[in-house]
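Researcher: Next sequence.
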Amino acid sequence: MARHVAGRGWYGKLVGAALGVTVLATGASVWAAQAGAAGTPKASASAAPQKVEAVDKSIAHASDAGPRGVNITIDDGPDPVYTPQVLALLKEHGVKATFCMVGTQAEAHPDLVKKVVADGHRLCDHSVSHDTTMDRQSKAYQKQQILDAERMITEASGGVRPMYYRAPGGAFTPYSRGVAASRGMRPLGWNVDTKDFEQPGADAIVATVKEQVSNGPTILFHDAGGDRAQTVEALRQCLPWLKEQGYVFGFPER
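Model: Next structure:
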């Protein structure tokens, strides 16, 4: 997996705040799991603790929609400018996606987190501060980044927990995968890296999808971390093209 480092200057501003977030204790309140694609919140942050069922800690790539399934995954948000545009396009084409959210972004824009859930999309933990050196940090730091982001996203959503964990830049470790899986979050990879964060132009993003979708079903886009107008335009073209090719949209396997 490529390690994404370009165009991420704004994340540096988040690190100081992220380091100040208290590590989620083992006995902290647990919220009900996201219920299918619709994911109606089952409990609030003040609910009694509930058991979280562990999932497979291997990195998921496959789609639950079968051999012609594709998974649209959207990273780094939510963003007040681009996330609403992405949501509008997904709704227009009847597509459900997985939103891999940065904890501080979710905390800053809870209305958008709730909108993502209300539209039937799934949530994914993308760490507190998008540190692409996660795999070189201590176990305590890795755990803090994963569990604090889980809490921040769950609180922002109104009680819907993330179903996946995607390490920033693919910086997984066996330990971080185990931590996420123990909290019911399947580690999530990708097969098609559109490199839209490099802003290569909408045509280039579309061309990457068309050339690489045969590599596997999980396609990586971004709705935050910079100007994502090219991504929005690329999605406008890619979603109908994928349908025309006989692909169906699903979620990553759990």
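Model: The first strand starts at residue 69 and ends at 75. The two ends are 20 Å apart (CA to CA).
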